[in-house]
Known about the structure:
The protein is mainly alpha-helical. Helix content is 76%, strand content 0%. Helix 4 (60-73) runs parallel beside helix 7 (113-119), helix 6 (94-110) packs antiparallel against helix 12 and helix 8 (121-129) runs antiparallel to helix 9.
Amino acid sequence: MSFELASCLLTMFVLAGIGTPIGYSIILAAVVYLGFAGLDIALAGEKILQGLYKSFVLLAVPLFIVAANIMNAGTISERLLNFCVAAVGRFRGGLGHVNVVASLIFSGMSGSAVADAAGIGKIIIEMMTKEGRYSRGYAAAITAASATIGPIIPPSIPMVLYALVSNTSIGALFLAGILPGLVMGAVLMAMNSYLSTKRGFAMEEPVPLRQLPRHTANAFPALLMPVILLYGIYGGVTTPTEAAAVAAFYALVLAGLFYRALSFRALYGVLVESARSSAAVGLVIGGALILNFIVISENIPGMMAEALVGLEVHPLLFLLGVNLLILLLGCILDATTIILVIVPLFIPTCKELGIDLVHFGVLVVVNSMIGLITPPYGILLFVINAVTGIPLREIISEIWAFLAVLVVALLLMIFVPEIVLWLPRMFGYLG
């Protein structure tokens, strides 16, 4: 390792360690590298601008953030919850099932785990803890665990970022996420059923079946969003970025005109919050673009690929090793940083070993989402704590069972690639 690269990494880790936002840490570390390497520091700005202007797909990120925030500001989340209660609330652990099913549906609109947790999370936790039906920690834990499904089922902001660094088809990635998302939902519901029966959680008063059509009709326009998105992309009507714009516009029309639940004041607040969230993601993306230039300049991907191929590593062993590393990194780093900074190092090796990049991308995103609920960092645990006030120790004590079944689901996707690749291949993806 060169002195310049060592200085860059040391600066980045020290800054991140003292609490500097990761985007600033990466950018400042890159400037240190350029200074020691005798390169023009203005190169940092040039690489950021080049990367942003060449990546039309990045426009999808702020647009999906806007769509998710509009969904939260309107009554759309509540309507979806009422539909889920009517559909699955009658079973043992009913509100836990409602929690998971609501996340499965909401994930088709937001593309963000944090938006899912902050949006429907507070509402469903209040429903679950009312009159002591579920403990606070359990309600918060299953909410955090189910929110991880958000970026797996399309649309997905992390998959857009992965497509940026791997040059992989966003359409194929979106399709590949559908079955894994359903598998994650199924294992969470199975664990919820087991724990609900073991602990004797009270059953909910079933909603009469005659009321189900009314709840379905109320939620139907919202349920159409993922259908519209997927048809637009796979029907050749829109690009993924244009589909993100359609999602934001459809959410605005739905909340503002159809449901009449979004005032101009609320819309202004949505746009301001979306701008802040997009800027935070943009800083990390900008830092990652410079860092990727440094990594390529140091020929790190080439050296890694040569070393691993020389050892004749089996693709399956490589996948297990990388996923274990990402799982550990997920305890301390957020998903955006992992995908933009760490994952590009492994892309050349995946190509050398013949690992499908769509399969690898879905595994990375699923793994990064599991990291969001893995103590001690687990950003979703902090989000739930912030919006509900439930102590972290109560959430962490209940999260382990759900964390375990999600890891089992991840292993299933590693050993059975068809879970990930079956749908993309049905639609003509060759890999």
